[in-house]
Amino acid sequence: MSYKKYDDESSCADSSSYGSAEEDGFMSECISDEDSGLAGTTDSCSADAEPGENPNSDLLEENAALLKRAEDLTSAYLTLAADFENYKKRNQKHLDDIKKFASEPLMLDMIEVADNFERAINSAESETADKDSLMEGVKNTYRQFMNLLEKNGLSRIPSNPGTEFDPHLHESVAQIPTADCPEETIIEVFKPGYTLHSKVIRPATVTISTEP
User: Fold this and answer.
1) Which stretches does UniProt call biased (Acidic residues) (predicted)?
2) What is the mean pLDDT of residues 100-105?
């Protein structure tokens, strides 16, 4: 009987051990299931966070706006540059026209003088030409011509004989020793001089006196 009891106790122990193993297995499965459930929950939370708002979207939008702004500014610059280039061409053409036609009023007045010279020439070539009237017509034309020059800023440099020599206004081409007038006095004028708006454009060519 003792052997049977031992067998019963052994079987009970084995049964108890088997029960413990089943419980351990059951607990392991439960824990694994719980862990897997928690992991799934964590993964699902992470998955739910990803499709949300992208933190770089603001930077992308700002970058796109800056690119659009740069394109607009580049287009505006190219347009402005083209307009400025056209303006320079128009302005240069305007300046060229001013230079080219600046003497138009003077030319119109000179045409009138040329007409008078032609009439004087035609009158001199006629058989009934009157010398006195022809001379008077030439003198009138000359006065008209000089008045026209003065109106446009041209003035004759004073250089009559007896005038004091001025190296800024006169050019001496000869010197004559004489005691009849002070030294460096104009004796004779070869070519009159002229100023244009107070600027000497041609000095008078003269002969001056020196000490004997």
Assistant:
1) 21-36
2) 89
